[in-house]
Every structure is written in C-alpha cells, then in structure tokens.
Amino acid sequence: MDLSYSAEYEAFRAEVEKFLAASWPLKGKEAELPGDQKASLLRGRAIEAGYLARSIPKRYGGSEQAPDVLKAQIIREEFFRARAPGDLAGIGPSMLVPTLLEKGTEWQKEKFIGPTIRGEIVWCQGYSEPGSGSDLASLQTRGELVGDEWVINGQKIWTSGAHLADYMFCLCRTERDAPKHAGISYLLLSMKQPGIEVRPLRQMTGAADFNEVFFTNAKTPADWIVGKRGEGWIVSRTTLKHERNMIGDAANSVMMFEGLVGLAKRTLRDGKPAIEDPGIRQRLAQLEGYVRSHQYSGYRQLTKAAKAQDPGRVGLMNKLVSTNLGQEMAKIALDLVGDDGLLEPTERRLGAPRDNGQWIGQFMWSLGSAVAGGTANIQRNVIGERGLGLPRDAAAQRS
Amino acid sequence: MNFDLTEEQELLQETVRQFATNVCTPTRRRAIFDGKDGHDTELWQGLIEIGLGGIALGDEFGGAGLELLDLALAAEVLGAEAVPGPFLGHSLAGLAIAWAGSDQQKKSWLPKLASGEVLGTVAFAEGDGRWQPDQWGLAGAGALDGVKTHVPFGAHAELFVVGTRGGGLALVERGARGLETEPLAGIDRTRRIAELRFAGTPCEALPFAVAAAARVRDAALVLLAADAFGGAAKLVELSAEYAKTRQQFGVTIASFQGLKHQLATMAVEVEPARGLYWYAAHAFDRVPAEAERSAALAKAHLTQVYMQTARDAVEAHGGIGFTWECDVQIYFKRAMFDRAFLGTPAAHRERAAALAGW
C-alpha cells in the first residue's frame, strides 16, 4: 500500500505542471478575450500536448493517448490546482462521444466529435418521457421514416439544457410491431427547427435547468441514426473502456465536507463558534467517517482500474454513496445556517457567512441528485440484483 | 498510487480464512460460545501455528516482522468468521512489550508470546468508560492496588500488560501475590472478559510506556475496526444468502423490493468502508501525523456500522434471526463488543474532533 506515485508518474506530473505554468492563465492580448474563448484556446493546446481528449483518436480532434487512469488522475489534479479548464463535462462529451466512437459511422464521428469536445456544439439527451421514467424502454415518442427523413412526434421530459442545446440524441420508437426493447432507435437531430418546442420546467430551487420538449413532425435525415434500426436500446447502453473518473466524485465530497467544517467554524451560536457545540462535533465526525470511506474507496477503485481489475460491486455504489453524503451535508448545513433558512438562496443576509445562500441551494439540489440519472431506489435495485445476486423484480422481469 | 493489498497480504487472509472454515466449524464455534469456559486451547494453538501469535513482532523473537496492516487483515478474517479466542488481547500484549519494553523484557516475553507458550492480554478499563491512557488511575509504582475490568481472557491469560496512572504500562504474571481474577458474564461469548483485582501486587514497569501506551491504544482501535468490517461484510453475505433461500408466496423473499432495498442499504453502509480500516492501519505504519485520528475515526465508524448491520441482519432473518440457535446473534454480540471495547463511537468521535482542532 503506497499512496504516492512512482517516479515515472511524478515526472509526468512535473511535465503537466510545467505546461500549465506556461499556458494558464493566458497572457498578453489573449488574456483580454472572453472567458469561453480563453478556455477553448487552452483546451486546443492541451489536446495538442496530449493532456485532454485522451481517449479520442486524432482524426476526430482528440489526442489519442494510451489509456492510463493514473495519468488521467494526475491531469485532473493538476488542472484543478491551476484552476485551468479541463475536459469539457456535460452530456455531449460524456455520453454521446463515447457512444459515437463505438457505434457511430465514419461521417458521424467526423462531423460531431470534434466540435462537441471543443464545446462548439452543445447536446441534450432525449430519453425520459412523461410515462417512461425508470421503465425507460416503454417510451412512446415515434420516429417514422418518410422518404429520406425521419419524422418525429411525441414528447420528452426532464431534458437538461434543451433550451441551450444545438442537437439532441434521442431514443424513439421506430419499429411499431417489435417487442418493447427491440423497437427503439437512437437518432440525432437538430434542436433548431420548427417542429421542436422547448418549454422550461421550473425547479423547486427557482432555477429552470431542464425542460419539456415537444416534437410535432420534427425532422432529421435518414442517416442520422446511430446503430441500426431497432438497436437504439443497445446503443444507449454503450460504455467505452475509457478513462473513468473514479475519484473525482469522492474529491468533490471531501471538498464539500471541508466547506461544511468551515461553515461550522464561522457560524456563531450564543457567541461561540458552532463547531464547539458537542452535537455538531458528533455529527461532523460521524459524517467524516462516510466521507473518508468514500475517498479511500475511490483510491481502491482507481488502483484496481490501473491494474485492469474489476473493483467488484463497490463500483455500483458510488452514486448512491455520494447522494447520501450530499443529503447529510445539506441537513447539517441547514441546522448551521439557522435563521438564514428563512430566506431564498439569493436573498441578502445580515451579518451571516457569505456562503449561507449556497448551502440553502445545496439543501434542495441534493434532492435533485437523488433523482437524476436513476433514482436512489433504482440504484438499490441495481446493487441488490447485480451486486448481491438477488432475483430481478417480478414486474420488471415480465416486461 | 497503490491502495490495494499485495499478493502476500491476500495470501495471509486466505490462509486465515482456510483455517477458520476448516477448523473453526460452526459446530465448534457454537460449542465454545455455549460452553462455560469459552477458551478452546486447541483452536488457539492452531491459530498460533499459522502464525497469528506474532504477525507484527520482530523475526528475532519468532514473529513475522510484518506491520499493523497485516495484523489487521488477519483480524478482519477472524471477525468475518467470528472465530472465538484471545487474538486481540494477546496481540496487544505483544505489541505493548515490543514498543514499550526493555531489551530484557522483550527477550524474555516476545518469543513466548509469538510461540503461544504464554497467553498474554491487556488490562486497560477502569469502569465508567475510562479506557484511555490519560484516564488510567491504577497506582503503578512497584506494586499495584485496585481494579481493572473488561480484561479479554483475563481468567485465562498468564501475562498481563496493565495500564497504570500517568499512561504507564506494567507487567504482571498470573499467580502474582494479591492478584485475583474473576470471570465476568460478558455479552460476547467468543471473547470472554474478566475482572482483575490487585492488592499490593508486584509488577514490572515497561520503561518506554509513556510514548507507547497511546500507540498500543491506536493499534487496538484499528484491530477492532478491522474485526467490525469483517463481521459486518459477512452479515451482508449471510443475509443475502438467507433471502435467496427462504420462500414465501411461492417465491424467494429476495425478490421482494422492500427486502432487496434493505439488503442493498446494508451493503452500501459496509462495502465502501473497507478502506477506512486499511487507511488507519496504513497511517499507523507509514503516516504518523494521521495515525491517531484515523484510528479513532475508523473505530467509531466501523463499529457503529457493524452494530447497525447486525440489527438489520437479525431483522432480515425474521423470527429465526431472533433465536439463540441462529448464528447471527454471535455476530451481533461481537458487534456489541467491538463497539464498547476501548470506548464508544461517540467518545472516539469527540477525540477525532479535538485532534482536528475543531
């Protein structure tokens, strides 16, 4: 057991550090550019240097590096430390690009991957429908091939960023008589067309990050399909053996925990820092047990991945663990902010620590993450069935 | 970056597991659990033979010269198989002498502890939750007067490492003048405890105790955390297996979502926490600045998780889980031992808070 990196990796770290010291922040005239242009300039140079878009072939705009989870981790750490923009997050780079790499046609890869990883085009994901949440394969939005075009009718919901997106990757029912899973195709389409209407859904936080999307004879070319007709379900399940970020998520939990301890130190109770309150100390120390567990579990998963070994069922638990952590932190934070819990996150506050509003936002946001991308209960099904080998749910088995 | 076990460490765990499954069968474990005495000397000798008497003692004393992590890995497996016996107290007595003893003391005792010729244990508790070196009040200059309680296998051990006032440690041998040992009806029948009474009892101080006593305490916390992880992980397996076997309404109860979610929740509490005791042991061996706090957090967290998992496991087994015959109760009571021995989770969380400067 050794948590340090070998000399080879430390040399790599020094190389990344040197690159960043020379490249970020931008200097001279470039420093005057708007933020997104600055980020895009740096990303281009970092791809050229082999630090970003590592799993993507050069001909599609990536840097085509051999998979190495430890190098990927070092790059993330160093970019984070330098506050430099790393690989673009978001649904396009994280979901569509790996899918295209595995299942897309040559022209699809050439057309879409480069602009997506450079942030020039933005995607949204058209999966959930009002009647199809956990039981996604029951989806009803129809795609019909008319001449050389797909004509799409129906509705998607919970579509994050649809109001900002240029394109959507979308699951549609194209094979009317096929069984449930076999009737679905994976289509790409432009969001900028008359057949599409986007209506924002306002969340309990007050923000509107996701939407309903209505399709009325929306159109997309016949060859904007990924995989064959009726293979959409399988295509949507595609995952690549690319560099997965095993401990980034745990690092976020550690950072948030440290923020919470900071809040407890700054918050006064009866004139004394709240962190001196025995109850708060107990809750924070109890929470830290979970936070450190998550952190070390990330180290172990990273080690296993570096050795190309299966981390086992603990790999299925990461989302639920970080959701649980987010919820618990939010509850403690709400107790700490006290009266400030009466105010909207954005309202001004008298003499309170500045970040109280953010913690109130987090109190609500932490619920969003318990639902998004598979509810906590669906996660428990997966852990029970795939992790513990329990039989599948009787209803799910029948369908 | 390597946060995983070596092949040797995996082999060590496999060796202990093999021994436990082949030799410490459920029937034998049950006989010990239900027996009056609680110490199966033949089983203990078997554990000594596979090297558990001195994993972390120097090879010049007949030990394996390994580290706390290796010892904790053995503790995890003993916890998983709920193996009865004096491993905890015996290991700690050896470590205390190795870290606090004079050359002469080490030479006299460590080979005998490593070979199992002498059974050792530690006597720390003085009642009312006083377990820590800075809470010890037993007068320790030349002769001992007073009481120590919750001493693991205190009625069987031949050598006691006794915590004394000011964080000292002293050796007392069975048969010493004025020493009385009396078995207590301990809740965990796989790890019996006793009370020790001293009246002008001669003792021999360990010269380097002031620096070493807290270190022995931290090692103990890591071993308890490891045992707790092993036991809790095993309970998840046992509960899932039971759910896959037991039938109601014509199907296995594992297909009911309510139970499936309970089992998943148990697994999510336990599995990711393995690294907590690994890291505490690693810090103990290699990162001194983090050792004390990591041990406190690991013991607090894992023993609480173990206790809750044991409660959940009883529930998951239904009526049978609540019976004396069901082996879940053996784990349940080991969880009670791990949780209370050396102080409650709350006590160690408060220590962790103070150590962080909160």
Task: Report on this structure.
The complex is a heterodimer of chains A (399) and B (358). Chain A has helices at 7-23, 35-49, 69-81, 91-103, 106-117, 232-236, 248-266, 278-306, 318-337, 356-371, 376-387, 394-398, and strands spanning 123-126, 142-146, 149-160, 167-173, 184-190, 196-201, 210-221, 225-226, 268-269, 272-273. With 399 residues, chain A is α+β, with helices and mostly antiparallel strands. Chain A has three domains: 7-81, no CATH class; 123-236, Butyryl-CoA Dehydrogenase, subunit A, domain 2; 248-398, Butyryl-CoA Dehydrogenase, subunit A, domain 3 (Up-down Bundle), CATH 1.20.140.10. The radius of gyration of chain A is 23 Å and the shape is globular. Chain A starts with 6 loop residues before the first helix and ends with a helix. Mean pLDDT of chain A is 90; it is low at 240-244. The radius of gyration of chain B is 20 Å and the shape is globular. Chain B is 54% helix and 13% strand. Chain B is of the alpha+beta class and 358 residues long. In chain B, a hairpin with a 2-residue loop joins strand 8 (247-248) and strand 9 (251-252). Chain B has three domains: 7-86, Orthogonal Bundle (Butyryl-Coa Dehydrogenase, subunit A, domain 1), CATH 1.10.540; 120-210, Butyryl-CoA Dehydrogenase, subunit A, domain 2 (Beta Barrel), CATH 2.40.110.10; 212-355, Up-down Bundle (Butyryl-CoA Dehydrogenase, subunit A, domain 3), CATH 1.20.140. In chain B, the strands form three sheets. In chain B, strands 1-3-4-7 form a four-stranded mixed beta sheet. A three-stranded antiparallel beta sheet of chain B has the order 2-6-5, with no helix packed on it. A two-stranded antiparallel ribbon of chain B has the order 8-9. Classes of the chains: A alpha+beta (399), B alpha+beta (358).
Radius of gyration of chain A over alpha carbons? 23 Å
**Terminus-to-terminus distance of chain B:** 30 Å
Alpha plus pi helix count of chain B: 13
Q: Could you give me the name of the CATH homologous superfamily of the largest domain in chain B? A: Butyryl-CoA Dehydrogenase, subunit A, domain 3
Report the portion of residues of chain B in β strands.
Answer: 5-15%
Oligomer: heterodimer
Anisotropy-based shape of chain B: globular
